[in-house]
Write a structure and sequence with these properties.
Number of helices: 10
Number of strands: 10
Structural class: alpha+beta
Strand content: 5-15%
Order of helices and strands: EEHHEEEEHHHHHHEEEEHH
Oligomer: single chain
Shape: extended
Length: about 525
């Protein structure tokens, strides 16, 4: 992948994965391509026992299957970065809520981290943070994400390009072409090659790989290291290349060297032409070198590394300053194309005109931009920071209110569902009660006809039934009134959301008016400068 970070330790022992990032420093090497397939020998463990052609064929189709499955998996993803990296960014975004940010310069910030009570400096342009997590992984830490939220920037654009979905797709975009059957192979003239003779070796065949010293772990979980490669030292004199037993012999050799006459000249190395003329510097053929093939991924990724690690500021469509910048003295260094005109719409650079790379897309855009207007005066910058701070505070307040309204609507919906369930159960009870009452009345009439019962008992039963029916009707009316009140609350919530949207539009119009006033003031300043020059 492009621009993979390489770590250099500040201590000799290899750290665990949970080590403190302050113990590391980062050096980025471009055009450094690494493949993790060789480190995982279990992937080809089955093929190791096969003959040469069968082994190569097995590994080839495993790689082909992996290329196809990874490509199909990437086609289902959405967004700009891979899902696992997106989850890490979202986790860091949650941690960013406990950070307090102070703006020191255009892209320089001072962050107080609440969970550890520490302070860090973050540089968005250089993509660095004092915690070193950003430099080590290429993924913005929660301190950097807090700065991005303060400046109203998307944190995904600061994730390294090697974690993008497009880079993932390009890595698995090239398909391998399988070989034809042996029947179609072209027969070459020459001696026929036979397989080597098989000799059976005693013992069970070896299948485990040769482990490095730091990989050998005992049953207790401790690492065992050998003394191979270490230089012995004498316990008497402390010097190297001998031990206690050979101390006397070493001292005799030292004394003999001191007594030996000095005057011998050191041998000089001479270049022998007969040897040098047989040494031929081998160069790869241009057709076989991927760095010279313009359609190869190695060439394109190498060209992308010439692009600076920068970003173009957010902009908006200004009718008076848009389109290609014809006649601009500066062009995009990577694409060699004319830039386009834009007006900045972020931070203290709001309203400044600039030229930027005309290539669309986060991965393809090289980040080239050149400012046309000078920086605003410090009072103007402070005013813009104040306006953006007010906007973010209002935006956060609206989001919080929206979340609270959503919770309230959810509670009302749950209450409405409960009321509907009670209403349905009550209606079922009423219908059951009516059926039972009707059956009792019919039974009483039948008993009266058959047995000649008294009319007073029937009247008492009738009055009781009527009273219970009235109570049931009263409960149904109360439930209906409660449902009407809930509907009114829902309507009031919708009206409040519409009012909030209108207020948001008014604030956007006010910002637009301020940008117009700033552009008018700039025109007046330009005219005054022209008059003064005349």
């Amino acid at each position: 992948m492009e621009g993979i970070p390489r770590l250099r330790l500040w201590r000799e022992d290899p750290p665990d994965y949970g080590a403190n990032p302050d113990l590391f420093t980062v050096e980025v090497e471009h055009n450094g391509f690494f493949c993790g397939l060789g480190s995982n020998l279990t992937y080809i463990l089955q093929a190791r026992e096969m003959p040469m052609l069968s082994m190569l064929d097995n590994i080839f189709y495993k790689i082909c299957n992996r290329m196809v499955t990874k490509d199909d998996e990437a086609n289902k993803w959405h967004g700009t970065i891979c899902p696992k990296i997106k989850k890490k960014v979202e986790k860091a975004t949650k941690l960013a809520k406990s950070c307090r940010v102070k703006v020191a310069a255009a892209d320089l910030f001072h962050v107080w981290s609440g969970e550890y009570e520490r302070e860090y400096n973050v540089d968005l342009k250089a993509r660095t943070c004092d915690c070193n997590r950003w430099q080590l992984s290429g993924i913005p830490c929660h301190h950097a994400i807090a700065c991005c939220r303060t400046m109203r920037r998307d944190s995904d654009q600061y994730v390294h390009r090697c974690y993008s979905i497009e880079a993932y797709k390009r890595a698995y975009a090239y398909k391998l072409v399988p070989l034809r059957a042996r029947v179609f192979w072209e027969k070459q003239p020459g001696m026929q090659i036979h397989p080597p003779l098989y000799t059976k070796v005693m013992g069970r065949p070896k299948k485990n790989i040769n482990k490095a010293p730091e990989e050998k772990i005992t049953k207790d979980g401790a690492k065992t290291l050998t003394r191979g490669g270490l230089t012995m030292h004498c316990s008497i004199c402390g010097k190297a290349n001998h031990n206690k037993k050979g101390h006397d012999k070493y001292m005799q050799s030292v004394e003999a060297n001191e007594v030996a006459p000095t005057g011998e000249q050191e041998e000089e190395e001479h270049d022998i032409p007969s040897i040098l003329q047989n040494i031929i510097h081998q160069r790869p053929h241009p057709a076989m070198d991927p760095t010279h093939q313009m359609d190869s991924m190695v060439y394109r990724m190498g060209q992308e590394d010439f692009a600076p690690i920068d970003y173009c500021p957010d902009s908006w469509d200004e009718p008076t300053f848009t389109g290609l910048a014809a006649g601009c003295p500066e062009v995009c260094r990577l694409h060699q194309k004319e830039p386009v005109k834009r007006v900045a719409f972020e931070g203290t650079n709001t309203g400044r005109r600039f030229y930027m790379c005309s290539v669309q897309g986060y991965i393809e855009n090289c980040g080239f931009h050149s400012w046309l207007d000078d920086e605003w005066p410090q009072p103007m910058k402070n005013t813009l920071l104040k306006l953006w701070g007010m906007y973010h505070d209002m935006h956060n307040a609206l989001l919080d209110e929206k979340i609270e309204n959503g919770k309230l609507v959810k509670d009302l919906n749950e209450e409405r569902i409960k009321v509907e369930k009670k209403y349905s159960s009550l209606m079922a009870d009423v219908s059951k009660f009516m059926n039972d009452t009707e059956r009792q009345v019919m039974q009483a009439n039948y008993d009266k006809i058959m047995n000649g019962s008294e009319e007073e008992k029937l009247r008492e039963i009738r009055t009781k039934l009527e009273n219970e029916l009235m109570k049931a009707n009263d409960k149904v009316a109360m439930l209906k009134e409660g449902k009407i009140a809930d509907d009114r609350k829902m309507k009031l919530m919708e009206e409040e959301t519409l009012l909030l949207k209108d207020e948001k539009k008014k604030l956007e119009y006010q910002l637009f008016d301020l940008f117009k006033l700033s552009s008018a003031r700039n025109d007046k300043l330009v005219k005054i400068k022209q008059i003064c020059e005349q």
